Recover the amino acids of this structure.
């Protein structure tokens, strides 16, 4: 008797959780289908989708809540006008020109937009003039509760979300299956050039599909406000992140190409979420986490790693890709001896001047800024190792840096061990974590590796950092000392700067040595062709583990130094995963292939907003996100980085000037293979 | 006992038997052909030898050691080199880099600590070796060229050079003539024959260019519908009526 009552109770809970899960899942599904739509129509894994959803939601908020527009007109503006227009602009100005680029290049662009678009929107409408508090949904009286079958409560918002999503899914399916446009869209995804050879205007098809997917993004944005917990709270772009992650997991179930899989995957994950909350006991710490913030990340990571379809998926290549010119060699490898000496003298002169100014004239503020640039240069060298050398993208360098910072802090505070030892121990821990992380993601390539590492970074951010053995106590990370070692006290600003410079030089030399030696050769071979690399005996898993751990250790050293410089672990300010996205963007935009590029990115990250934006142009610091975010567009055209591109151009110019003076020498040089390679290298990138 | 032996290899894909009970043996210093019409299972058998595919039945041994379950890179380190039908080069690297990578991976320990201490940088002697091999393949002076600047014929030679830098005991060539015209094919064959005579490695040539196989190899295996229909000395095989019926057809009749 008791057993049957219990069973009936469990059954009722399960059914209630099922009905609660469907609308949440519908939200996931809508976002997931938009991912699939964008991917199918343009081959872009559009992470900027979260930003597009935010812009529509925020436009609606601005118009309806702040300016008292009626609901229908605000929705019309935000979803029917602004969203497709944004999609059209993105396609026309950006994605049309990068269609032949690799999936990874497109991912970098979308990361740049994810950072840039919300910031640009906020600057334009002055969104943060007061706290954007009190977000509302688009359904009038959306919180009205109905009872399904007389007992299971659902709100009007939830019913509306579910119905709209299912209708949208059916409409999309019909479009792809039964219309000429659907067929053309599918062809354009495969190869726009090939499709044009068959007499289809690929640009037009592409524009249409981007407007459609952006409309979906906008719709999801306004619909999701009430289904997330952000209803009635502050409407910020970060609010969309967990839902975007869950949607990614749903889209991943269908390998990003199946709309039905995205729909059912979304609904399934919604139901799984509510069932977990209902049935899984909370007395165990890990199980309790799984009901809360950890769930989306764990789901995403697990699906990417274990879903067989993803492991088998190979990046489809455009059959006409060979038409594009090959990537040019590094400028440093193709320049003449005279040019190399000249460049080095100039660099030496520049650094001497900066050094003299810093130590003789600079005030505390500027010494601190310069120390920051040096430290960020070190951190960014970890991206040079992973992306420049390894040829892949990881979005968790920020996590490794945080591990280094917390390591330095924990060792110094708990055990009173030298902070330098703590930093090294933190680096060792980060290297171990990197090595362990590299194992499940071993066979993943391109975008999947990036997404899996992003899931790890978010998991660390939302779950692990709250544990005291990771992030310290409530006021975590206060009071990190500066080191004293080898009998030198590095607590003064100047001495600490010298220590940071020494470590930067050490790490820089280390990266160059790795690049030029056996490990670097194996990595370059793997990057060129994994099949061919294995055929000459390269052990790919070993190289992967090395890349993960070396870059993790470098990031952790930088993180540790940053904590010492600021005398605290400013986790929220420095090591937020979104900040990590911006790190990646700024490094690959400026040049991830060289140590120089990493250092320039470090300087640009710190000095640029301070000096150029604030002091010279009088602009808000947020403009740096906008500028570098949009600069990510250049990555597709100049994967070697903007600075490398600039160097190559100036080199060509200088050689031309040089050749006018000494025609005989120049003619001889032009005949050699080196110069020929240089000329063809610079030419393809010149025209936008 | 032959150097490379495939014993009773069978491989099925979703109900289709691509290769059935195939036996192949290759000795050091030998030049052997493997021919068959398109879809005969040549590439499947080839991939089973290299470790890219795992056979459903049968075994592969190298120098008396069972290598059926070894991954590709372990086989490469034992001394099995290869080239690719669709050229697989390391984009973004120079011609010399290709040889240098291969040499380094074969000879170096690849230990990270050595690299960090600066002991892993390329030595002048290594670079000389690479350039010497390039010279003998007719690619002298092209060491600094970016790999993308080469013609298809030159690219195939770089693949051969890369395989040779691993000091292989057998080299497996996957349709080296595809995409090349007759003159280029002949030039490639001449170079290969000369280098093979100098270095004495075994050569397995998978081809559908029968003329190349006829002029280049000493022994030939013929594969049709996944089964070896015959093997023997190349001139005998070319005269075999079953082979002519299955594959060679008018070509052999025309040359007689």
């Amino acid at each position: 008797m008791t057993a049957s009552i219990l069973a009936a109770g469990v059954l009722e809970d399960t059914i209630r959780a099922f009905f609660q899960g469907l609308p949440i899942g519908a939200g996931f599904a809508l976002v997931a289908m938009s991912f699939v739509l964008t991917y199918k129509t343009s081959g872009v894994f559009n992470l900027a989708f979260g930003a597009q959803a935010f812009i529509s939601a925020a436009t609606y908020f601005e118009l309806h809540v702040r300016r008292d527009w009626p609901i229908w007109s605000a929705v019309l503006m935000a979803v029917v006008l602004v969203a497709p227009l944004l999609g059209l602009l993105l396609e026309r100005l950006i994605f049309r020109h990068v269609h032949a680029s690799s999936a990874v290049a497109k991912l970098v662009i979308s990361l740049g937009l994810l950072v840039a678009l919300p910031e640009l929107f906020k600057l334009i409408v002055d969104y943060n003039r007061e706290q954007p508090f009190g977000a509302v949904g688009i359904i009038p009286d959306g919180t009205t509760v109905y009872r399904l079958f007389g007992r299971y409560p659902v709100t009007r918002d939830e019913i509306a979300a579910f119905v709209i999503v299912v209708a949208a899914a059916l409409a999309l399916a019909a479009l792809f299956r039964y219309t000429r446009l659907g067929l053309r869209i599918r062809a354009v995804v495969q190869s726009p050039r090939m499709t044009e050879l068959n007499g289809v205007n690929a640009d037009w098809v592409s524009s249409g599909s981007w407007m459609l997917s952006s409309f979906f993004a906008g719709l999801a944005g306004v619909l999701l406000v009430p289904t997330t917990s952000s209803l009635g709270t502050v409407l910020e772009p970060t609010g969309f992140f967990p839902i975007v992650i869950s949607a990614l997991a749903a889209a991943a179930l269908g390998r990003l190409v199946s709309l039905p899989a995205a729909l059912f995957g979304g609904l399934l994950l919604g139901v799984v979420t509510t069932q977990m909350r209902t049935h899984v006991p909370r007395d165990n710490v890990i199980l309790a986490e799984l009901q809360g913030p950890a769930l989306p990340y764990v789901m995403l990571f697990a699906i990417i790693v274990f879903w067989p379809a993803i492991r088998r998926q190979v990046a489809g290549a455009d059959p006409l890709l060979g038409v594009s010119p090959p990537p040019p060699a590094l400028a440093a490898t193709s320049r003449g001896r005279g040019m190399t000496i000249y460049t080095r003298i100039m660099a030496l002169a520049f650094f001497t001047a900066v050094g003299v100014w810093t130590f003789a004239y600079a005030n505390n503020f500027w010494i601190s800024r310069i120390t920051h640039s040096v430290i960020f240069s070190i951190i960014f060298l970890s991206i040079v190792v992973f992306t420049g050398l390894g040829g892949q993208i990881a979005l968790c360098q920020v996590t490794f840096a945080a591990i280094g910072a917390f390591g330095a802090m924990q060792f110094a505070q708990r055990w009173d061990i030298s902070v330098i030892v703590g930093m090294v121990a933190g680096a060792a821990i980060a290297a171990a974590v990197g090595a362990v992380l590299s194992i499940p993601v071993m066979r993943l390539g391109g975008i999947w590796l990036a997404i899996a590492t992003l899931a790890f970074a978010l998991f660390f951010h939302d779950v692990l950092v709250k544990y005291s053995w990771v992030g310290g106590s409530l006021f975590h990370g206060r009071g990190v000392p500066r080191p004293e070692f080898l009998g030198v006290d590095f607590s003064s600003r100047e001495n600490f700067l010298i220590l940071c410079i020494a470590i930067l030089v050490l790490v820089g030399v280390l990266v160059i040595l790795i690049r030029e030696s056996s490990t670097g050769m194996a990595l370059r071979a793997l990057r060129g062709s994994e099949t061919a690399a294995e055929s000459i005996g390269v052990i790919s898993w070993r190289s992967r583990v090395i890349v993960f751990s070396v870059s993790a250790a470098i990031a952790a050293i930088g993180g540790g130094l940053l904590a010492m410089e600021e005398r605290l672990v400013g986790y929220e300010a420095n090591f937020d995963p979104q900040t990590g996205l911006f790190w990646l963007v700024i490094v690959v935009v400026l040049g991830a292939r060289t140590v120089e590029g990493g250092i320039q990115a470090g300087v640009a990250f710190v000095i640029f907003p301070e000096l150029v934006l604030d002091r010279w142009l009088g602009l808000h610091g947020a403009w740096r996100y906008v500028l570098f975010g949009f600069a990510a567009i250049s990555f597709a055209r100049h994967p070697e980085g903007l600075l490398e591109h600039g160097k190559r151009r100036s080199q060509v110019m200088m050689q031309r000037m040089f050749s006018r003076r000494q025609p005989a020498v120049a003619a001889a040089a032009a005949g050699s293979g080196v110069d020929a390679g240089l000329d063809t290298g610079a030419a393809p990138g010149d025209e936008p | 006992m032959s150097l490379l032996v495939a014993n009773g290899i069978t491989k099925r894909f979703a109900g289709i038997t691509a290769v059935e009970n195939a036996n192949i043996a290759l000795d050091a210093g030998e030049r052997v052909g493997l021919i068959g019409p398109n879809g005969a299972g040549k590439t499947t058998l080839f991939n089973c030898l290299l470790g890219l595919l795992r056979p459903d039945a049968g075994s592969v041994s190298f120098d008396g050691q069972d290598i059926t379950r070894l991954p590709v890179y372990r086989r490469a380190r034992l001394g099995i080199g290869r080239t690719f039908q669709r050229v697989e080069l390391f984009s973004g690297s120079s011609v010399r880099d290709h040889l240098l990578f291969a040499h380094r991976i074969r000879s170096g320990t690849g230990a990270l600590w050595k690299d960090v201490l600066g002991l892993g940088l390329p030595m002048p002697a290594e670079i000389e070796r690479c350039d010497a091999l390039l010279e003998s393949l007719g690619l002298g002076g092209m060491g600094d060229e970016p790999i993308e600047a080469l013609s298809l014929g030159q690219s195939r030679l770089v693949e051969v050079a890369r395989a040779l830098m691993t000091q292989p005991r057998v080299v497996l060539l996957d349709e080296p003539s595809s995409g090349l015209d007759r003159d280029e094919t002949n030039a490639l064959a001449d170079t290969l024959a000369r280098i093979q005579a100098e270095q004495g490695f075994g050569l397995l040539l998978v081809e559908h260019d029968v003329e190349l196989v006829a002029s280049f190899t000493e022994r030939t295996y013929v594969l049709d519908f996944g089964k070896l229909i015959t093997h023997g000395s190349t001139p005998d095989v070319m005269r075999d009526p079953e082979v002519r019926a299955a594959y060679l057809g008018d070509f052999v009749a025309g040359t007689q």
Notes: The two ends of chain B are 36 Å apart (CA to CA).
